[in-house]
Predict the 3D structure of the following.
Amino acid sequence: MTHAGYILAAYLAAALVIGGLIVWVVADNRMQKRKIEQLEAKGVRRRSSAGGSGPGQAPGQAPEPESQP
Amino acid sequence: MSLLGQIIAQTVMLGLRAGGGALVGLVFFLAVVAVVPFGVGPDLNLLARIGPAILWIGVLLASLLGLERLFAADREDGSLDLYIASGEPLVLLVLGRGIGHWIATGLPIVIAAPILGLMLNLSPIALVAVTATLLAGSPALTFIGTVGAALTAGLPRGGMLIAVLVLPLSVPILIFGVMATNGAVYDPEPFTAPFLIVCAFTLASAVLAPLAGALALKVALE
Amino acid sequence: MSFISQLANPTRFLELSARVLPWLVAASGVTLAIGLYLSFFVAPPDYQQGDSVRIMFIHVPAAWLAMFCYSLMAVSSIGSLVWRHPLADVAAKSAAPIGAAFTFLALFTGSVWGKPMWGTWWVWDARLTSVLVLFIMYLGLIALWRAFDDPSRAGRVAAVLTLVGFVNIPIIKFSVEWWNTLHQPASVMRMDGPTIHSSMLWPLLVMAIAFTLIFLTVHLAAMRAEVFRRRVRTAQMRAAAQPAASVGTTVVAHG
């Protein structure tokens, strides 16, 4: 009673699911980091990182939205 | 009239109105039940066996109709904000809307169920049993639906999402409702126990759903 | 509790998680390797099922993780609603897809195990049906998360739904006892202790630990991505609020 195909299918599915999760989370992290770098290159800084006026802050700008994590 | 009574009356009137969805729900129920024999074939014995389940599923789907607008209309025209500002408990609003929605949409469907059951070749015992279980259990479906409606009150197209959210939670009621009906028809199977469980679901959801719905409304409003 | 309130600061969370993550990855890899070795070379073939019992070493941990993940989301939901912990809904949101993946894995491996064992890919008994319902609930939560623009608002709405759906977890756990099911009754998490033989219990436990570590690793990384995603959103909103100061128009990245 070997049922090798079923066992293979199960472990393959596990590999694909876990592998897929890893790929998803790594890709997501990379994409978000890239977007942050792009935005910072345009001069959009976090309030806590830029100590006062940084590049790209025009005088009389609109009030900033509430803080998000 | 008490506040709860007023809310119920208003919900019933809104539901029975032209765009309210009550009559559409009834027609939808008829359509669902009529479509099934086309799918499974006209074998009357088969239809008699799965008939109670078809009716229950039809009631479940039809009760999802009209949930989308249950709280969305209140939210859009600002009356939800007024209600909260007035200090009255939100649970009362959710409970009232739930009861009103059931009276307007659920009750007509439950009344129509035995008539449609005849088309599905249900025996007289089955007809009585399915109507009784639907009467006992369809309020539970509506109450669970109000939770889904409250959760999606702020969304533009919450309709389908409500169905996805509500259906998994409705599965236990469906199971016991059909179990009770089958118990009445087929001798060795119990009727009383599943029927009482269906009643318990309705009573429990009448209490818990308004709590969850009120919380969801408060949260969806922020 | 002060550790958890320390973690309320997202920047601190990012620092801590960046340091913890490599260790988690290493621990996951090592435990998984040991678990796989035990599953294939140490555990004996079953008297009745032969080698297909080895599917259990994937199926059971996946099912445990599916429920563990939902419980974690439920706790996070309480954190969101009661204490308004800023990272609670980050934790819940990032956990949902992982939980869905493990639930799918449990269903798939269960089906693939059931075919040689019971002769059928699927049966509508209480355990399988309630796990399927759990899977649908995960998908519903993911859909709810995506339906809102504002992630904080989405978080609180999803928290309510998560708590409402938590009723399904005890149903799954006890379904094999309350109803006559085709699925076998509990043999590990029982009041009297496990009934499974130690030669199979150890690979099972090691695989369970491995899966848990993998879950924690992926979850922590997903939380980091979610924190970054919200920062991107805030920055984009800020960029849109600024009048165009430079010579050319500022084109805000979408996505």
